[in-house]
Task: structure prediction
Amino acid sequence: MLPPTVSKLLALILIAQSSLALPSAQEWQEFSDSLSGRLHKALPLSAPCFPVVNGEKSTINPEECSVIQSNYTVADFRSVRAPAYMFTQWETCQRTEEKCLLDPTDPSNPLAYTVPCQQGYVSEYYVAVSGPGDVQKSFLFSAKTGIHLSIKSSGHDYKGRSGSKGSLNLWVNQYRPAKYDLLYIPNFIPEGGERPYAHAITMGAGVPFEDLYKFADENNLTAVGGYASTISPNQHLAFVDVRPSIFIQGGGHSILSPVFGLGVDRVLQFKIVTPDGIYRVANSFQNSDLFWALRGGGGSTFGVVLESTFLVEPRMTLQVASMSFTRTSTNYQPFLRLLVDESYKWGTEGWGGHMGPTNLINVNPLLTLEEATESLKNVSEYVTAQNGSVVIEELPSWEVFFTKYVTTAEASVGVENTLMGRLISTDLFTSKSGKTTLTKTMIQMIQQYAINPYIVVGTPFLFNGTANATSVTPAWRKALWQLGGHTGWQFNATVSQIRTQYEIASNIAQLMRDITPGSGAYLNEADLYETNHEGMHMDWESFWGPNYPALLAIKKKYDPHSLLDCWQCVGWKGAQDVRYDCYLP
Ligand SMILES: Cc1cc2nc3c(=O)[nH]c(=O)nc-3n(C[C@H](O)[C@H](O)[C@H](O)COP(=O)(O)OP(=O)(O)OC[C@H]3O[C@@H](n4cnc5c(N)ncnc54)[C@H](O)[C@@H]3O)c2cc1C
Ligand SMILES: *[C@@H]1O[C@H](CO)[C@@H](O)[C@H](O)[C@H]1NC(C)=O
Ligand SMILES: *[C@@H]1O[C@H](CO)[C@@H](O)[C@H](O)[C@H]1NC(C)=O
Ligand SMILES: *[C@@H]1O[C@H](CO)[C@@H](O)[C@H](O)[C@H]1NC(C)=O
Ligand SMILES: *[C@@H]1O[C@H](CO)[C@@H](O)[C@H](O)[C@H]1NC(C)=O
Ligand SMILES: *[C@@H]1O[C@H](CO)[C@@H](O)[C@H](O)[C@H]1NC(C)=O
Ligand SMILES: *[C@@H]1O[C@H](CO)[C@@H](O)[C@H](O)[C@H]1NC(C)=O
Ligand SMILES: *[C@@H]1O[C@H](CO)[C@@H](O)[C@H](O)[C@H]1NC(C)=O
Result:
């Protein structure tokens, strides 16, 4: 057993962490012994298919390779494997082209095997975290040996923050507290508090959304969480595998957020091991500064979260609208204009949804079916005139909605994919010139870059949040949409082809910034190369706005030696750090 605090010890033994350190064989052995078999070595997911792995001749394993080939683009398969990521550029070292990938369009394509399999970005060692002790030992090991740490749950991160070349990976994906996976607590009182919250669910960091939604429904409850829709053809879905405990830390938007708030608005308590080695409860009454930081500061920054508790709602009836039509060279333009024109009114009525140039899926927990039908009249008439399909219906629960519209549409992962996004200020929707500007920008995305605008109506538009209760940028609360778009490339793309796609994403992000000065971006779904374009004095203004200095102070308090660091995270070491050697500069 470790002492309750390792912070003093850490301070004494911490060695310089600026370069890539390698523990000795003996240090690895001792560490492994202390973890009773939970330290594992990892090769890249597709290694069994390759004749040469990490420079050495290897024996192809036809059975294992065939399982990998047939499940290469299956989210359920990837999300429970430590070396697998949803977006496969994060298994590769993009700068050096070291990789071990298959062709996702045809996983048996022999072209993939003509290059040697290399470890790339994938951690050689990971700890299958089974409790706070494993995390405490890992922080200590990192401090002692200088090896970098990374934390991974299900690997949906768009920005490579759940891995790092040469790091020891803390894999929390399977973690459930000993006594329960999910726990419904009526009248939940945060530890140290007094006021009870009518309905709350506590869950381990390894529990996926799919299980949460089902569990909530079985208890006649609604969990407010996210998903991605099939709206754009290059949008790859795999949301049900995302871990709610992770999603919450960066913001967490849902199409129910307009009425019920963001994930950060609904969390009541975290249990977390901070890098000083202490297992803490963070809520409004204990470690309240840390709690505030975890409500928007982002993952992999303040510690390893092992449990979270958040508010849930009673089961609710939803009005659901699903519309789509076939695109012609021009018919998407008036549709986009209609979405822009109607969005402010829809916002005041409680609609959330995902929309694109030729389709939408919107939900509303406040209106009746009649009101919902009337509210969407203009847009349904337009879609009908395009010979498109219009369904507006009342469904008895989120679970029924999710099963009908989302689960059935789950598409593949295992591809190279990136995105950009921006919070679109409400004031753009209230003036004629604002509406015209926004519509033009979306049309430009399509015409100049062939990228579909992906509109998330998931800001806390009607939600009455408490001032400064969360650390997300306040821009969330002055915005009506999160506007984004996805792009990708082939598994065998060259560095310059990859760079081109990142540049396109950044160019589009800049178009969006130009029309929304002073707004912000969602740190989980923003341009990989987000800039502090407004020229404010502080870094990462777009993710946290005026909250950044307080977040940085809290980072320094709980992680004084920067044992955790990730791309564009609070207090990060910067792109020059050895941790980011695989990102394209
Ligand atoms: C298809 C798809 C749909 C999405 N839809 C939505 C949506 O509807 N709404 C929304 O808000 N977001 C959405 N996202 C973004 C998503 O919420 C984030 O990518 C999320 O953080 C990924 O969670 P994960 O479990 O896969 O985490 P990972 O990718 O494993 O990790 C994400 C980050 O959290 C860190 N981390 C992981 N575990 C822990 C832990 N226990 N403690 C501390 N840090 C940790 C990692 O180091 C990394 O920095 C979507 C993403 C995808 C790919
Ligand atoms: C992998 O693919 C095989 C063959 O298609 C299938 O039977 C199996 O269930 C898949 N495994 C997982 C974990 O998805
Ligand atoms: C859920 O509600 C139904 C209908 O009111 C009721 O029969 C059932 O017992 C409830 N289930 C739980 C777990 O509360
Ligand atoms: C918001 O709360 C945090 C954490 O308690 C604190 O550090 C910060 O100064 C507060 N910000 C404002 C503007 O009050
Ligand atoms: C439909 O559009 C017209 C013209 O812009 C507008 O006046 C009207 O309020 C809209 N109807 C609804 C139901 O939103
Ligand atoms: C819709 O279908 C009708 C009947 O087939 C056809 O006349 C009309 O041109 C179509 N309209 C559009 C916009 O495709
Ligand atoms: C927010 O507060 C206002 C004023 O108190 C109230 O009318 C409204 O219903 C609240 N909104 C929600 C979504 O609870
Ligand atoms: C990638 O592979 C495809 C065939 O699968 C081929 O058409 C394409 O030219 C290759 N691209 C590069 C950059 O080699």
Remarks:
- The CA atoms of residues 217 and 399 lie 6 Å apart.
